[in-house]
Specification:
heterodimer; A: 77 residues; B: Peroxisomal Thiolase, Chain A, domain 1
Chain lengths: 77, 346
């Protein structure tokens, strides 16, 4: 799955405007998400890339780029 | 050959109801539809202050006896599964023996398991019956988790519910296994992610442990309350449940297609739908029945079975896969043939 499609799903799940995720430096704030939002992101990553990322690592991501880096790192490992 | 069967199941829910509308009134930034969309739960049940797991379990067992499935004196072994026992000691099963009027020659013990408890209990009942130690095992699951939940912990309150089930597991003569095989799993690294930290011998309750704090999502609790890290538990489930399902299929020498119905622990709709898609289980073979009772921990699987039977989703002879997973971390999966005819919900 390409990253654009992944970000489409992410925006829908988090109920945020897709354009807000358009730039690599777009800010995330997983610390403010409730546990359901974090679970939804974990599920989308699992669905799109077939990997399970730890919630504690997800919570450290504060930009779209850092989230995508996390996914790439886990795909490689 | 001597084999164990699930003969009948009865259930009982705690007295007070808690609906999504009531929760939405308490937590103004949530609405009832959102709670429903995310959890798949419309209402859950809350034990009254004087209602314990044994009280709920007793009524479920009495319903079983009243149904004619068996009488109290037929029971020669009681397994009571709870994580909210009446006392540290004695074991609640001993109290239940007296209250239910079971024979003094009846064996009885508690098992302290949560969401995997029903599958564990079935495996123990099968072992007792098929080794000739018992004829009629009464397996009771009963839980009052809400007593541990802080009123301002909305993430836990939307999910958990109090209730009990009573299952009669009987000896019969059959050529093939009607319960089992089973696979199990344990990973104590997850113990901290679903826990009531105080109240046991490790850390007693005092004024310091009662100090309340808020987490980043605004949920309030103290160390005396249940703590749940939903995201980490979700991660654990995504990794362990598909693996357990595959292990059980291999052990059973069955393909996915050969399983007629899948009954997973009814944690919440989001988790179950994610697991169903990941494991590639057809929707029509997958049990989603927590709508009217919520997450009753070890009771969700037998409660879901009752409703699925009442709805005609499972028929006699159907081969079912039962999968429990959660607190511990602990998980268990087992096969069971649907043979019982006497089930009712209430």
């Amino acid at each position: 799955m390409d990253e654009s499609a992944f970000l489409d799903k992410l925006a829908t799940a988090l109920e945020i405007d897709r354009s807000a995720l358009g730039q690599p430096e777009s800010l995330f704030n997983p610390g403010s998400w409730d546990s359901l939002a974090i679970m939804e992101v974990i599920a989308i990553i699992d669905d799109c890339y077939g990997i399970t990322v730890p919630a504690v690592e997800l919570a450290k991501c504060n930009t779209v780029e850092s989230l995508l880096s996390l996914v790439r790192r886990h795909k490689l490992s | 050959m001597r084999k164990a069967i699930i003969h009948s199941i009865k259930s009982h829910l705690a007295d007070a109801q808690l609906t999504n509308e009531q929760l939405a009134q308490e937590f103004s930034d949530w609405d009832a539809k959102k709670i429903w969309d995310k959890t798949g739960i419309a209402t859950r049940f809350v034990a009254t202050p004087d209602q314990c797991a044994s009280d709920l379990g007793m009524i479920a067992a009495q319903k079983l006896f009243l149904s004619g499935a068996c009488s109290a004196t037929d029971i020669d072994f009681l397994i009571f599964c709870t994580q909210s026992p009446d006392y540290f000691l004695p074991t609640t099963a001993c109290i239940m023996q007296e209250r239910l009027g079971l024979s003094v020659n009846c064996g009885s013990f508690d098992i302290n398991q949560g969401c995997s408890g029903y599958v564990y209990g079935l495996s123990l009942a099968k072992g007792l019956i098929e080794t000739g130690s018992a004829e009629n095992v009464l397996l009771i699951t009963a839980e009052t988790y809400t007593k541990f939940i802080h009123p301002m912990d909305r993430s836990a309150r939307t999910l958990f519910s109090d209730g009990a089930t009573a299952t009669l597991v009987k000896a019969t003569d059959a050529e093939q296994d009607l319960i089992g095989p089973f696979v199990f799993g344990t990973d104590g690294r997850g113990a901290k992610n679903l826990i009531v930290p105080t109240g046991g011998a490790r850390k007693r309750r005092d004024s310091m442990t009662a100090i309340e704090y808020s987490d980043q999502s605004g949920n309030v609790r103290s160390e005396d309350n249940l703590y749940m890290n939903g995201a980490e538990i979700f991660n654990f489930c995504l990794q362990s449940v598909p693996e357990a399902v595959n292990r059980l299929l291999v052990k059973s020498a069955l393909s996915m297609d050969a399983v007629d119905f899948f009954v997973f622990h009814q944690a919440n709709k989001f988790m179950l739908e994610t697991l169903r898609r990941k494991i590639k289980i057809p929707a029509e073979k997958f049990c989603l029945k927590m709508e009217n009772f919520g997450n009753t921990v070890s009771s969700t699987i037998p409660m879901a079975l009752e409703i699925a039977h009442a709805d005609g989703q499972v028929k006699p002879g159907d081969r079912m896969m039962l999968v429990g997973f959660g607190v511990g971390y602990s998980w268990a999966a087992g096969m069971a043939q649907f043979v019982f005819s006497e089930v009712s919900h209430g």
